[in-house]
Amino acid sequence: MKEAMCYLLNNLLEKREQAEIEYEEQGNISRFKIRVDSADRGKIIGKDGKVIRALRTFFSLAGRKSNKKVFIEIVL
User: What is the domain extent for residue 51?
Assistant: First the structure.
């Protein structure tokens, strides 16, 4: 899942080298913590939160196949 997140974020961001993705798994919970440059934060969130909502929906559905809950957090 982390590879998919890296791929998607690399295509969204302008300052890819400043992006950091932390991935943790605890039991049936997977958690992403994403840090990006302040200029790219709007691209991750999207207009009215549509982009981050789409990412959360996509990874939530992917996690269901392996009975995992996936949480995505944007860290400031």
Answer: 2-74
Number of independent structural domains in the chain: 1
User: What is the bridge-based pairing of β-strands 69-74 and 29-35?
Assistant: parallel
Q: Using CA atoms of 66, 74, 23, 11 in order, give the dihedral in degrees to the nearest 10.
A: 80
pLDDT, tens digit (0-9, with 9 covering 90-100), for 10-47? 999 999 899 999 999 999 999 999 999 998 999 999 99
Residue 59 backbone phi and psi in degrees, to 5: -75, -25
Tokens of residue 63, six digits: 């996690």
Q: In what order do the strands lie in the sheet with 20-26?
A: 20-26, 29-35, 69-74
Contact 43, 10 (CB under 8 A): no
